[in-house]
Amino acid sequence: MSLPPGFLDELRTRSSLSQVVGRKVMWDNRKSNQGKGDMWAPCPFHHEKTASFHVDDRKGYYYCFGCHAKGDAISFVRETENVSFIEAVEILAREAGMEVPKQDPRAQEKADRRTQLAEVTEMAVRWFRLQLQTGAAGEARDYLAQRGLSEAALERWEIGFAPDSWQGLWDALKGKGVEDDLILGAGLAKPSAKGGKPYDTFRGRIMFPIRDARGRAIAFGGRAMDPNDNAKYLNSPETELFDKGRSLYNVREARTAAGKGQPLLVAEGYMDVIALVEAGFEAAVAPLGTAITESQLQMLWRIAPEPIITLDGDTAGQRAAMRLVDLALPQLEAGQSLRFAVMPEGQDPDDVLKTQGAGAVQKLLDAAMPMVRLLWQRETEGKVFDSPERKAALDKALREKITLIKDPSIRGHYGQEIKDLRWHLFRPAAKSRGQQGARRVWGNAAPQAPMPSTKASVLVTDTEGRSAQHLREAVILAACFQCPEVVEDFESGLEQMICADPAHRGLRDILLRHADDGAAALREKVSAVLGPDALENLTAQRHVAITPCIRNPGNREMAQMTVAEELAKLEAMRGLDAEIAEAVEDLSGVPDEGVTWRLSEAARAADRARRTGQEDKAEYEVGDNGARISRDERSALDALLGTIKYEKKKGHGR
């Protein structure tokens, strides 16, 4: 609509912004100066305790220093009442005693018809309410009483009843002189396919009026009293007044309650909303028989920055939540998201209120999970990630979802949160694999007490082997901190490092969780978690300091080669230990002194092979367990296994 020049300026001049805003906020009297028109209040657009919402009455302008909402009286009415520009102008004009200039004839005709349709729908509200008091509605009244609705609640929600007759409402409206076209246009009746008299849309149903953000009756929802009815709930058809994808049940009252600080709750249906509001959760709304649409999502965010979706504890409720996650991801903004409160299995909010009370619902709301957790749950729940391929499939699925987020900052935070969750998922699995490996090597029987001489053997007191492992881990960690870009290539190997040293374990964990942040951020993280000297202590060790990639920081290729080589050597050491352990287990009984001596000699030979400087030049072969083992180590291992087989055979001979 085109308005004459100067009309909006005069409207803004006549409208007191502080009076318009004052209907939605509580002014902070300590901070405000009413005489100067300098007013402060908690922002009605986002939840806060401090008064950061500023109104300059003289300039007719508002601004929030928290969420950065800004505008004039017209924009404030548009946002808080969820109305169009011209509707906001009409509201302010009425309050200011001004007449809005006439629209063009066609637009005026359309507005007049919408007004007439709303008036007819309001007449239907009153008629349905009267029918609830008749004898034909006895069963409906009993049902509502069983659902815990008092007379006051029935009055508040304007609940009515549509008798099980074909033309009850039609005849009532016609008796008041309403034209056929308006009754049909409001969706209250349908034309007969046989050319007869139109028939009522709603028959034999409990009726719930649906109002828009301005409070106008625009449609109905009806619950069937017949349990065999194919449609348990039926909404009005879409009309010039009613677009169910752009409407929310109880939106007007919920906006007011949310403006006073109550959390905005999204339930599945009418009865859930009514139950929540009656229990004190007044900012509750529901979509109208469909999954939440993009328009409804935007409506929710205009009311509150972080609505809580209350999910029924069934499969359908879970599926609806997952669809909503996909819809919301591309529209996320800083401070604008969703949280999800999951009801107990097989229950909805109304069930929880009836069985456990409002306190139980509040606990569920307090524990509502952020959207990123629900996204993670969808991709991981009930699945097993016991192979690299399955882990890669998980990574791919999550990556595809995260890339839908347009805001780069939010996308980065989602990526970090997913990385943290991935870490917690796979670390227990790694530990479990280690435990399974231990059971495979050592069996389930309780260990026998070792002989005194066995306690002193190299097989038990092999500190050199652990020392070599510690040195290699130090080189690997230092190389990764010098060039964090290589971490992604070796995540699996890093996860499997034993890291008996807590300092190494702490450094490894920080690398796996924060490598994407870059070298500088990594150093800050290490300093904050492990102390300012942790990295210096690592790189100052002589065997680390002389490593080529440490002397040439930033050389990615050199760092990759170093990490790959050292991880291969650690894997070979693990393979050697596993084979020795399996062979020792094959011996029946506790080794005698002779066996202990021979095993000690073989273990020393294996350890010399580990520590020799020639290992770096040795060629590698694949061991029986798939590990890469140097030929020096293979020779020592063969000597050890030969000794064990000899002793075992000799034992059997006895």
Structure description:
One of its GO terms (molecular function) is DNA-directed RNA polymerase activity. Keywords: DNA replication, DNA-binding, DNA-directed RNA polymerase, Magnesium, Metal-binding, Nucleotidyltransferase, Primosome, Transcription, Transferase, Zinc, Zinc-finger. The structure is a single chain. This protein is an alpha+beta fold. The chain folds into four domains: 7-96, Alpha-Beta Complex (DNA Primase, Chain A), CATH 3.90.580; 103-242, DNA primase, catalytic core, N-terminal domain (DNA primase DNAg catalytic core, N-terminal domain, Alpha-Beta Complex); 295-440, Dna Topoisomerase Vi A Subunit, Chain: A, domain 2 (3-Layer(aba) Sandwich); 451-653, no CATH class. 55% of the residues lie in helices and 10% in strands. The chain has 30 helices and 17 strands. β16 (620-622) and β17 form a beta hairpin. Mean pLDDT is 82; it is low at 428-463 and 612-629.
Brief sketch in words of this structure:
With 654 residues, this protein is an alpha+beta fold. Helices cover 55% and strands 10% of the residues. It has 30 helices and 17 strands.
